Amino acid sequence: MSKARILVVEDEKNLLLGLRDILEIDGYEVVTAENGRDALDLLQAEADSPPDLIVSDIMMPHIDGLELLRLVREQERWVQIPFIFLTARGERSDVHLGKFLGAEEYIIKPFDADDLLVA
């Protein structure tokens, strides 16, 4: 049985590639986007096969992670996709806001690869 399909949204290219590698080595199928707008375009284009999980940074150009989460949760077909923030925004208020908006997990950078895999 294949593992889940994960959408990783991160504007820092090296980190995006590193996250992809970590997840692919663990057997996940990974699709990537460099900002929230590209992530939404990808979700629309692949409407028949949405990801099983979205992992997103918060601070990104065009559409940030908070807005991406809000837009994903507005769509009935995407509302059940689990959402994990992976971000440098580590203040308690940031974590509370992310969870309040509906993120299942909130991982603060720098992070350990095992933290991501467990989440």
Summarize the SSE layout with pairings.
Layout: E1 5-9, H1 13-25, E2 29-33, H2 36-45, E3 53-56, H3 65-74, E4 83-87, H4 92-100, E5 105-108, H5 113-118
Parallel strand pairs: 1-2, 1-3, 3-4, 4-5
The strands making up the biggest β-sheet line up spatially as 2-1-3-4-5
Averaged pLDDT: 94
Percent strand: 15-25%
Kindly state the number of beta strands: 5
- Structural class by helix and strand composition: alpha/beta
In terms of per-residue confidence, which ranges show pLDDT below 50 for 5 or more consecutive residues?
none
Kindly report how far apart the N and C termini lie: 20 Å
Quaternary state of the chains? single chain
Largest sheet: 5 strands, parallel
Q: What is the percent of helical residues?
A: 40-55%
Query: Order of helices and strands, N to C?
Result: EHEHEHEHEH
The Cα radius of gyration reads 13 Å
What is the 3D form?
globular
* Individual helix count: 5
Model description:
The protein has 119 residues and is an alpha/beta fold. 40% of the residues lie in helices and 19% in strands. It has a 5-stranded parallel β-sheet, with helices on both faces. α2 (36-45) runs parallel beside α3 (65-74). The longest helix is centred in the first third of the chain and has 13 residues, at 13-25. The chain starts with a strand and ends with a helix. The mean pLDDT is 94.
Summed up:
β3 (53-56), α3 (65-74) and β4 (83-87) form a beta-alpha-beta unit.
Which labels suit this protein?
119 residues; alpha/beta; five-stranded parallel β-sheet; 5 helices; 5 strands; globular
